[in-house]
Specification:
By secondary structure, the protein is mainly α. The chain has helices at residues 2-15, 23-26, 36-61, 67-131, 139-145, 162-172, 180-183, 200-212; strands at 152-153, 159-160. A two-stranded antiparallel sheet has the order 1-2. The termini are far apart.
């Protein structure tokens, strides 16, 4: 009896264990996942709403009522931008042409100014050389030999430095110049004749005799 009672107790203890959970209840504890396509659509819809909100805010901040109006404004802007770009290119081309012409004319003007200034210097020097008794056949040689760069021309076209230029020529090539006596018609005394000691009156007499010769 006792053994049977113990067996009954053991069976009763086993029967007191909680019943096994059914499949429906056990599934409640598993993690559930949404379909990927559903999640992607949610994200896409959310981004579209945000984009629409930003677009409306953008249009309102710029006083535009619709996207069509904005498109018209952008189209007109692009057309005007192209016109301005073409106009700028035309003016740049014209500017380059005028710059080249200006450079050419400036070079010609500089050359003409230099030549005119040299002509003024040569003319002033020639007059001074003739006044100082340069021989006529040596005038051009004297002008070429002179340092014209030492002469200056002012705004009134007056040439300065002539006296020093003539003085330098007389020191460097004195044979190109006649003496004062020769310019007054007194012939030069023969070399070695001792005539360099003639008095002024005797030189004048010789000059008069020379004038009487045919």
């Amino acid at each position: 009896m006792t053994e049977q009672a113990g067996m009954h107790e053991h069976e009763g203890a086993q029967n007191t264990q909680p019943p096994a959970e059914t499949g429906e209840k056990s599934g409640a504890h598993k993690e559930e996942y949404l379909p990927k396509s559903f999640v992607e659509q949610l994200i896409k819809d959310r981004l579209a709403r945000q984009e629409e909100s930003l677009r409306k805010s953008f249009l309102e901040n710029r006083g535009v009522e619709s996207e069509d109006e904005l498109d018209e404004i952008l189209t007109a802007y692009r057309e005007a931008e192209e016109e301005v770009k073409d106009e700028v290119e035309r003016w740049e081309s014209r500017y380059n042409e005028l710059s080249e012409k200006h450079t050419e004319l400036t070079g010609r003007l500089t050359d003409l100014s230099s030549r005119y200034e040299r002509a003024l210097k040569s003319q002033a020097l020639q007059q001074a050389l003739l006044a100082e008794g340069v021989r006529p056949d040596r005038v051009k040689h004297a002008i070429r030999h002179a340092d014209l760069s030492s002469l200056e021309v002012d705004e009134n076209e007056e040439v300065s430095g002539i006296e020093q230029a003539v003085k330098s020529l007389k020191e460097e090539v004195p044979e190109w110049f006649t003496s004062k006596e020769e310019r007054r018609g007194i012939p030069p005394a023969p070399q070695g004749s001792g005539s360099s000691k003639l008095s002024h009156e005797e030189k004048l007499k010789r000059s008069n005799l020379a004038n009487l010769r045919f």
